[in-house]
């Protein structure tokens, strides 16, 4: 007997024991056969459309009527009726040419055995021996029972694969737009006599799986050559195939059964293996073969038609290594679609997403999803990244539609607080509590009325959106039904749906959408729910993914950008020329007239110490990203040795730290929109500049792991003190200074490096007038810190002049100023605060008196 037959017999004996039956009857066995998980009898009943719950209930009633014997000692035995069925099952197994008695043999024996009790039950449920035999042949195919576990080899494809053609017929696959060339290539390879196995190779997210789904859709529409019409495309699930294979050889058994079912279909089944590289090494243990080896013979003979899909890296890593496996596949390259093609693909998918989320998606949203993802999400591929943007933006609006709006939620929270207060005040007896109660009652009444109005409006708007969503889903179902009727040749039904119900539903939808649009126009100010995805929703998702503030991309920044220098001057004093150069580069990038394949701007800031080079970088980061910490700062003095280059881009393979990535490449990969500051650039080893050449020119850098990091959205700034002595020389004119600095640069850096920098910006040394401006900036920061402690502070002009004079040093720039403010202002002030002379709520007036400040 097979394993399942033995399990059924043991379970039947236990059931008879529980019911106190003197013997095991055929009904006990039948009960267990019908309830067996992964057994073949439930599958036969399914094919015969027998309601199993009803069948089992009738069987239970029969079993409950059997005589019962109580009291210990009696031994359970098989009844004569059951023994007769045993004998018939053995004959049945021989008739089918099987080596073991399986569960289906018992079932067929019961159907044919002429047992009146059982026949009555079968007759009532319309189960006949002929129908059961037909169903069994469908399940078993040409398989024979040659071991004790045959169930795993029946209908294995239903268990371990998804029927893509069936899903296409039910309208459950997304439409595939474009990709005609690739589908044509796949069909061409499939039509070969031998080695008819195409493998789709491309980057993740370009649509390899979609091409297989596109083929399934074409097979259903009969838009394929004659040799592919009516074929089934099955997607193999490697995970299900491996899962639960406990014993050695079990996985191979399952895979052999899959191959046997595909080959015995005589070309009717085409196998699709997504992530083809998982075949290599799958199920491999000591002395066992992996899946790839088992597939090779069938692939070579052309008995098994198989479409694979994998990425370039994995194809190279796994498939190419096994030349014998590789030559059995024909590669079909799937390139990333262009921006225009990706927009077309999204237009084709738009309807599916509208039906799912129940909101409209504007065409402008589709276009901006493709363009924004192409520009800002560089580490992923079209159309996948654009589809994800649309999906998430629609999902966000869909959730807002289904959850209580913020206004309603706020009012309900207020009501809750007022009710709690009311309950507390009821216990008080004084006059003020009674007055407050009257006020609370009035507030509750007003809020309730307001809440009811808002809720009604929300319910009304929500109802409209839900109605549109339901109609769209109905139209989708009708289209699937029309296609099905046309395929089955039921032209009457197709015509009725196509020219009757479908236009009617579309007319209703149009009317609903018109009404909704009118309502939106008339109540645009007070509308609570948004029902269409626009470009701004997509931009918001991009902002969440990448960290670029969305308002910066959409909000009319024209005024802000035009006055960018004024904004930067608040922090950087006395370097107007440098700020204008930087602002011009940013404006060019924002106007989208700068080169899109280079960084936004690459600058070298030159000047003596303490004139504001690094401060300009921080101010720029704050202007662009609202965060002065959005600076990738790399100290070039750490890169003085030749081997330090690998720290920037990551160690090469085989070296320690290979997995970690480089300091520069990793920072920019994680945060592609930042200001990159290479501080004290002249202190680095000359070889470091060779690496920077490709960043300056093409806006890209390849790290130690072969990943390309995109620098196109960064502002790259290098600071240097080269030639600062010339800048400080009071005896030189501006032109002479510039000439001297350029000469010093040419001596220190190569021409091809200097030539790639957008602008070399000279920072002037600071005069006394600029220092007093810097004092004001620094004192503002002090006032800000004190404001947090609720202490006010103001300074008269003498105090400002005193600090400026004491902190001015032409060689060291503004750096000594911080030290002067610390010693002259902050140290004495801290004593005043700690001693308690200055408390929260006080205002400090600071004046200069002789050689010090007074408070």
UniProtKB/TrEMBL annotation:
Q: Which Gene3D superfamilies match?
A: 1.10.8.60, Clp, N-terminal domain, P-loop containing nucleotide triphosphate hydrolases
UniProt entry keywords in alphabetical sequence: ATP-binding, Chaperone, Coiled coil, Cytoplasm, Nucleotide-binding, Repeat, Stress response
One Pfam entry name: AAA_2
Q: Where is this region: Disordered?
A: 1-21
As recorded in UniProt, coiled-coil segments are 408-515
Q: Which organism is it from?
A: Bdellovibrio bacteriovorus
Family, per entry: Belongs to the ClpA/ClpB family.
User: What is its quaternary makeup?
Assistant: Homohexamer; The oligomerization is ATP-dependent.
The alphabetized list of GO BP terms reads: cellular response to heat; protein refolding
Q: Specify the Clp R domain's residue ranges.
A: 1-142
Any idea which GO molecular function terms this record carries?
Answer: ATP binding; ATP hydrolysis activity
Q: What does this protein do?
A: Part of a stress-induced multi-chaperone system, it is involved in the recovery of the cell from heat-induced damage, in cooperation with DnaK, DnaJ and GrpE.
* Organism phylogeny: Bacteria, Pseudomonadati, Bdellovibrionota, Bdellovibrionia, Bdellovibrionales
Q: What is its main location?
A: cytoplasm
User: What SUPFAM superfamilies does this protein map onto?
Assistant: Double Clp-N motif, P-loop containing nucleoside triphosphate hydrolases
The protein, known as: Chaperone protein ClpB
One GO location term (cellular component): cytoplasm
* Gene transcribed to yield this protein: clpB
UniProt-annotated location(s): Cytoplasm
């Amino acid at each position: 007997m097979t394993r399942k037959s033995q399990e059924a017999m043991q379970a039947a004996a236990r059931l008879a024991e529980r019911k106190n039956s003197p013997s095991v009857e055929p009904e006990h066995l039948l009960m267990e056969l019908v309830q067996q998980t992964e057994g073949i009898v439930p599958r036969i009943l399914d094919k015969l459309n027998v309601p199993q719950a009803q069948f089992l209930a009738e069987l239970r009633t029969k079993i409950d009527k059997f005589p019962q014997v109580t009291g210990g000692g009696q031994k359970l035995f098989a009844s004569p009726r059951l023994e007769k069925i045993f004998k018939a099952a053995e004959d049945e197994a021989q008739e089918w040419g099987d080596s073991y008695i399986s569960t289906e043999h018992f079932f067929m024996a019961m159907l044919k055995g002429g047992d009146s009790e059982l026949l009555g039950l079968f007759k009532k449920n319309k189960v006949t021996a002929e129908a059961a035999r037909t169903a069994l042949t469908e399940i078993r195919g040409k398989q024979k029972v040659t071991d004790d576990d045959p169930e795993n080899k029946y209908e294995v494809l239903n268990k371990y694969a998804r029927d893509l053609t069936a899903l296409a017929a039910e309208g459950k696959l997304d439409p595939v737009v474009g990709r005609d060339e690739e589908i044509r290539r796949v069909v061409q390879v499939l039509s070969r006599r031998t080695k008819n196995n195409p493998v789709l190779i491309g980057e993740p997210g370009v649509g390899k799986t979609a091409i297989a789904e596109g083929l399934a859709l074409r097979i259903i529409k009969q838009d394929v050559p004659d040799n592919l019409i009516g074929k089934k495309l099955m997607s193999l699930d490697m995970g299900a195939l491996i899962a639960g294979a406990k014993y050695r050889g079990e996985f191979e058994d399952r895979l052999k059964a899959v191959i046997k079912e595909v080959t015995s279909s005589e070309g009717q089944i085409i196998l699709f293996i997504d992530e083809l590289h998982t075949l290599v090494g799958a199920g491999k243990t000591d002395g066992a073969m992996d899946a790839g080896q088992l597939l090779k013979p069938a692939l070579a003979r052309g008995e098994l038609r198989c479409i694979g899909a994998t990425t370039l890296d994995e194809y190279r890593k796994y498939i190419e290594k096994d030349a014998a496996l590789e030559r059995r596949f024909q590669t079909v390259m799937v390139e990333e679609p262009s921006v225009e093609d990706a927009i077309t693909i999204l237009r084709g998918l738009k309807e599916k997403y509208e039906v799912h989320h129940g909101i409209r998606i504007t065409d402008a949203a589709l276009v901006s999803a493709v363009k924004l993802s192409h520009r800002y999400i560089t580490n992923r591929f079209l159309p996948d990244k654009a589809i994800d943007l649309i999906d998430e933006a629609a999902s966000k609006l869909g959730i807002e539609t289904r959850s209580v709006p913020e206004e309603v939620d706020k009012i309900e929270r207020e009501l809750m607080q007022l009710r709690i207060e009311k309950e507390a005040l009821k216990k008080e007896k004084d006059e003020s509590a009674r007055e407050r109660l009257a006020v609370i009652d009035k507030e509750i009444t007003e809020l309730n009325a307001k809440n009811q109005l808002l809720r009604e409006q929300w319910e009304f708007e929500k109802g409209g959106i839900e109605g549109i969503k339901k109609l769209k889903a109905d139209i989708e179902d009708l289209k699937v039904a029309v296609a099905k009727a046309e395929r089955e040749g039921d032209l009457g039904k197709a015509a009725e749906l196509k020219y009757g119900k479908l236009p009617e539903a579309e007319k209703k939808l149009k009317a609903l959408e018109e009404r909704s649009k009118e309502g939106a126009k008339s109540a645009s100010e007070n509308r609570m729910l948004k029902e269409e995805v626009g470009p701004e929703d997509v931009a918001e998702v991009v902002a969440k993914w990448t960290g670029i503030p969305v308002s910066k991309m959409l909000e009319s920044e024209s005024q802000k950008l035009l006055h960018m220098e004024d904004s930067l001057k608040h922090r950087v004093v006395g370097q107007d020329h440098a700020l204008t150069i930087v602002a011009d580069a940013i404006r060019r990038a924002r106007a989208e007239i700068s080169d899109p394949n280079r960084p936004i701007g690459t600058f070298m800031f030159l000047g003596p110490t303490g004139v504001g080079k690094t401060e300009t970088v921080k101010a720029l980061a704050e202007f662009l990203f609202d965060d002065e910490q959005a600076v990738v700062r790399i100290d070039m003095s750490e890169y003085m040795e030749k081997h330090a280059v690998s720290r920037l881009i990551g160690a090469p393979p085989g070296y320690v730290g290979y997995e970690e990535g480089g300091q520069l490449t990793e920072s920019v990969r994680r945060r592609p929109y930042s200001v990159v500051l290479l501080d004290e650039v002249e202190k680095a080893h000359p070889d470091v500049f060779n690496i920077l050449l490709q960043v300056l020119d093409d806006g890209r850098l390849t790290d130690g792991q072969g990943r390309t990091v995109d620098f196109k959205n960064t502002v790259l700034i290098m600071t240097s003190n080269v030639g600062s002595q010339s800048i400080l020389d009071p005896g030189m004119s501006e032109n002479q200074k510039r000439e001297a600095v350029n000469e010093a640069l040419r001596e220190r850096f190569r021409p091809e490096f200097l030539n790639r920098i957008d602008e070399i910006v000279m920072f002037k040394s600071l005069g006394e007038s600029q220092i007093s401006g810097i004092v004001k900036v620094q004192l503002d920061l002090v006032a800000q810190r004190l404001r947090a402690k609720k202490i006010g502070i103001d300074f008269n002009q003498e105090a400002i002049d005193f600090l400026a004079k004491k902190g001015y040093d032409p060689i060291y720039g503004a750096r000594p100023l911080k030290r002067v403010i610390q010693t002259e202002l902050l140290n004495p002030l801290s004593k005043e605060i700690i001693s308690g002379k200055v408390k929260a709520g006080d205002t400090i007036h600071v004046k200069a008196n002789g050689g010090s400040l007074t408070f």
